[in-house]
Specification:
2 copies of one chain form a homodimer.
Chain A: E1 3-5, H1 17-24, E2 41-42, E3 56-62, E4 74-76, E5 79-83, E6 90-94, E7 100-105, E8 127-129, E9 132-136, E10 141-146, E11 152-157, E12 172-174, E13 177-180, E14 192-197, E15 203-208, H2 213-216, E16 224-225, E17 228-229, E18 256-258, E19 263-267, E20 288-292, E21 299-304, E22 319-326, E23 329-337, E24 342-347, E25 353-358, E26 366-369, E27 381-383, H3 389-392, E28 398-401, E29 415-417, E30 422-428, E31 430-436, E32 450-456, E33 465-471, E34 476-483, E35 492-494, E36 498-502, E37 507-512, E38 518-523, E39 533-537, E40 540-547, H4 555-559, E41 586-591
Parallel strand pairs in A: 2-35, 16-21
Antiparallel strand pairs in A: 1-22, 3-41, 4-5, 5-6, 6-7, 8-9, 9-10, 10-11, 12-13, 13-14, 14-15, 16-17, 18-19, 19-20, 20-21, 22-23, 23-24, 24-25, 26-27, 28-31, 29-30, 30-33, 31-32, 33-34, 35-36, 36-37, 37-38, 39-40, 40-41
The structure holds pyrroloquinoline quinone (PQQ) (2 copies).
One pyrroloquinoline quinone binds near residues 183, 186, 410 and 411 of chain B.
Pfam family, one (chains A, B): PQQ
Protein name (chains A, B): PQQ-dependent dehydrogenase, methanol/ethanol family
InterPro entries (chains A, B): PQQ_b-propeller_rpt (IPR018391), PQQ_MeOH/EtOH_DH (IPR017512), PQQ_rpt_dom (IPR002372), Quinoprotein_ADH-like_sf (IPR011047), Quinoprotein_DH_CS (IPR001479)
Chain lengths: ~600, ~600
């Protein structure tokens, strides 16, 4: 059995060689995902499974902002860049001086945007390219900052917060462009991915998630779905009337890029509203993995994971690009741990569906995904009628659906180690009751249409999360570590055979990549929903993570909500978090003793 | 030469034996000052000068509140108590579970109080006694909380925030009472010390700092000043008209207690306003060390350090009670490092002035304190006319006064080691320009009357602080460590021959108690204005400190002020702090590796 992380070979002429070289340098961490393939794997091995137990805190930094701290620090040369939740401060810290502040960018944003952010005031961080730090603010201002001075090079408005358009995602620098998404699925926002010129901020293209082919940048003949041409206006036909205009499919998750295939990958979110009776049809192309040509945005292939969503299983989780041997054949894979509880293994060149399996045995809303290419329902989940909120109808509370709306896994990114060939996945182990109700649309107002309550998966270990190792070659969970709360932090695997993740109580944990055995834990100041990163500075390997409870799971603490159904249903299930942690906003940097 | 820390001998019948026993137990830290004598010394020696370099962060805790974190954690048995700035949250943390939150008390206070707090929203922490945690909130609510459950036992309103009466100080439990002060010298508040019954909250007595003898609890014959009876209505005669009613002399600093002498010691703040021309006279008894009988509050002796203040040198700093040999004789001393730059050594039984020396050579507003008992000006500072803001008169800017208004040392408490016989003093090395102007009084409005600007002491090391070792037996600085910013953190000396303090940049530092050599430093998340404490849990010694930039020195960052003259003149001098640290609110706990 062999496994190899994606390594760029012959790349197109326009490639951003400098940036790709920096991504290949394990000492730096220049985009949020670490690399284009979204593996979150580091070749560094000074900290390894033999010595990780000796880890110490090297230095710390308070960001001066409370609420959920997602994403993580970037490291570019001797500089570290840290981004905060709203108001989205960016700090440039000097690693030669234990984090002395070289510059600080503090945008003036209208705080009204906070009210139209569904799931806390999070921001998944900035990205570096071409001596520039690119940030996409909550109010959808895209900003380019001189990496040395913090000076604003250009700003561009990507959306309209008064219509519920906001942003929480990072941006992806590809070639000479910056790709950016949009949030607002709970406000009837119609999602899109937009490319801006890195140097000038000029818009290159915009691809909507729903609507007419021209606006979706879809070619009825060339764009494929499971190997077949997509056909004309495939989205329009899957909605009643003009509902696609309020159709959601927002693009608030992670973006990947394969420089060899020259394809960008990302997923689209839930169709709006959460009341499925208001939107008959498959609601294309919400809940879809999309592969596009970055040069013009044209769609190469789509795959809709959850047609006609009835549970808010946004399809935006990271698509991890790995080359692995499946049934004796090396394949160019895209692996996606979807919110709906299935992990999809696809051929990333063609969009072929290779496998789809539950990665949490608690998943009950569907029995399986039809993998038979000859079948009428090829590629579709086989929905269990008892858990269909559409069949139950409006104003009926459907109980015991697993996973809950925040999925078997939300945006917290998994990691892949080419050394073990395993995926390390932060998961939720949460179920829900879901009662849809009719809503009408008003721009800038919540457009949700369901009342939810969440609780730990029943008949299990009693906790709300697991940290698992998944083998995509066999489609099996190798090991699973029960956690009291959802694991809402991104994982990091390293060549030291160690995997790191954070917990909502605030622990940074290090486990053995082969066995899952816990090797180290440290209680950081606040709950961790940030993503663990690593870098090397002056010969020393560091591990860095942001603390600051929040995100959807921590919304009760972050926004001071106590009614169990508030926070889109998350407050009740995570109420016990207040016995472990309080709001924060800190970076903790770890290293081995000298 | 010998030195001994005060140890209680025969104590009066009403003594709180349990509490005094807990203060004597170095494993616990039950009141903010560590002990009644305010030595901030610990007998613990597991961490010592040989191994302190190996110190590691054991665990951390974010308080969920930003701005200045003064005071420090209490440790009572297995429980730790942490208090935050406004809104004055109290956390009870379980030390057996790395700070799991056992209970949280979060008062609902009118946020309007923030506007009438002169020097940030700080609170110098809670105190423990009789299974109760006592807290004095910003809005002057005194509250008694069940130490196990956090349940409110009683609350009492000590003042009126709408008239500018607020609180930042800790409380002192003495016998069956709680002693509490009041802030508001910049709002024309007339200071007082008040005793409440520990069990019921009933008021026992209140002693004003200014006014008629009955209200000041002064006996014209029995109360002495430098050995002489104080005489009738000594305060009233030292003010023009009714100005004493707006006279300041607030009591926002530290309180000490000598159980053997059965005397409580504390200092009073500046007279109001800062424009001396509006208040001719000595302005008694502002700027005064007071010794009182805790049972009825009656004054035993007073000593006014800065008669007719012209520089805002509040006299509230801690009075450290030590027994040391002076000129071959063991003396019961009270040592006070005053804001005005003189350290006063007094006989704490009689109020005799033994010595007064400058502890920062930069001090220039007075040449010396007259120590000749035969002199007309006995006990008075010899003011240098050039630096008299009264002589210059209203609307004249007096330049180059040292120290600045925040003193050679502000409230940040010093520590005394009976092992070295030295005092370890966090100091400011800052000078100022001071321009008084006429103001009129409106209740609840600032009543300041001077424009200040501050800067590092000229012709020196360029920094704004020093951490010094002072020998009261010889009246000399033993060593002095230059710091870029004022040292605004309280010191801790231990039997391990180590002294700890924090810096405004956020470093916790450990130095050799004899030589001052730096043995360890760690960059905590935010600037440190908290006081370092230590305790033992399950056989292990811990060092704990709060980070969170603020207080008067950090007011620019804390309140988001940028005009150099804002923040009562402190913003400009400390502007460079923003290159080192951002707002925070974290506890960092250190220990040696296992
Ligand atoms: O539909 C959307 O536009 C949208 C946006 C976001 C977001 O931007 O954070 C989340 C979600 N949906 C969502 O469904 C969700 O579970 C979620 C979790 C989080 C988070 O950061 O913890 N954000 C979001
Ligand atoms: O006159 C007063 O009532 C009063 C109150 C306070 C306070 O309560 O914090 C300070 C001061 N004055 C003051 O003069 C001063 O230097 C000061 C510093 C600080 C601080 O916590 O950093 N508080 C205060």
């Amino acid at each position: 059995m062999s496994a190899a992380i994606f390594v760029g070979g012959a790349v197109p002429a326009l490639a951003n060689d400098e940036l790709m070289g920096m991504m290949d340098d394990p000492k730096q961490w220049v985009i949020q995902t670490g690399d284009y393939a979204n593996t979150r794997f580091s070749e560094l091995e000074q900290i390894n499974k033999e010595n990780v137990g000796d880890l110490q805190v090297a230095w710390t930094f308070s960001t001066g902002v409370l609420r959920g701290h997602e994403g993580g620090p970037l490291v570019v040369g001797n500089m570290m860049y840290v981004t905060t939740p709203f108001p989205n401060v960016v700090y440039a810290l000097d690693l030669n001086q234990e984090g002395r502040i070289v510059w600080k960018y503090e945008p003036q944003q209208d705080p009204n945007v906070i009210a139209v952010m569904c799931c806390d005031t999070v921001n998944r961080g900035a990205a570096y390219a071409n001596n520039t730090i690119f940030l996409h603010q909550a109010d959808t201002t895209v900003v380019a900052l001189d990496a040395m001075t913090g000076e604003v090079k250009w700003t561009k408005q990507n959306g309209d917060p008064s219509a519920g358009q906001t942003n929480t995602a990072t941006v992806l620098p590809v070639k000479d462009m910056i790709l950016v998404g949009v949030s607002g699925g709970e406000y009837g926002v119609r999602g899109h991915l937009t490319a801006y010129d890195m140097a000038t901020g000029e818009q290159r293209w915009r691809a909507y998630s729903t609507g007419p082919d021209e606006e979706m940048l879809v070619d009825p003949q060339q764009t494929t779905v499971l190997g077949e041409p997509i056909g004309e206006n495939s989205s329009l036909e899957s909605w009643e009337g003009d509902q696609w205009q309020l159709g959601g499919g927002t693009t608030w998750g992670w973006y990947s890029y394969d420089p060899e295939l020259d394809l960008v990958y990302y997923g689209t979110g839930n169709p709006s509203t959460w009341n499925p009776s208001q939107r008959p049809g498959d609601n294309k192309w919400s809940m879809t993995i999309m592969a596009r040509d970055p040069d013009d945005g044209m769609a190469k292939w789509f795959y809709q994971k959850t047609p006609h969503d009835e549970w808010d299983y946004d399809g935006v989780n990271e698509n991890i690009l790995v080359d692995q041997e499946i049934d004796g054949e090396m394949r160019q894979l895209l692996v996606n741990f979807d919110r709906n509880g299935f992990v999809y293994t696809m051929d990333r060149a063609t969009g072929e569906l290779i496998d789809a399996k539950k990665y949490d045995p608690a998943v009950n809303w569907a029995t399986e995904v039809d993998l038979n290419p000859e079948s009428e329902t090829y590629g579709r989940p086989q929905v269990v009628a008892d858990y269909s909120t559409r069949e139950a109808g409006e104003d009926t509370n459907v109980e015991g659906i697993c996973p809950a709306a925040l999925g078997s896994k939300d945006q917290q990114p998994a990691s892949f180690s080419p050394e073990t060939g395993l995926f390390y996945v932060p998961t939720n182990h949460v179920c829900m009751d879901y009662e849809p109700f009719r809503v009408s649309y008003t721009a800038g107002q919540p457009y949700v249409g369901a009342t939810l309550s969440m609780y730990p998966a029943p008949d299990s270990h009693g906790g709300m999360g697991n940290f698992i190792a998944w083998d995509a070659r066999t489609g099996e969970i190798k090991w699973s570590l029960p956690e009291q709360f959802s694991v809402w932090s991104g994982a990091l695997a390293t060549a030291g055979d160690v995997v790191f993740y954070g917990t909502l109580e605030g622990y940074l944990k290090a486990v053995d990549a082969e066995t899952g055995e816990e090797l180290y834990r440290f209680k950081t100041p606040s709950g961790i929903i940030g993503n663990v990163t690593t870098y090397e500075h002056e010969g020393k390997q560091y591990i860095a993570v942001l603390s600051g409870i929040g995100g959807w799971a921590g919304i009760g603490l972050a926004a001071g909500l106590t009614n169990p159904n508030e926070g889109l249903g998350a407050v009740g299930g995570y109420a016990a978090l207040s016995e472990y942690t309080a709001l924060g906003g800190q970076l903790t940097v770890f290293a081995l003793p000298d």
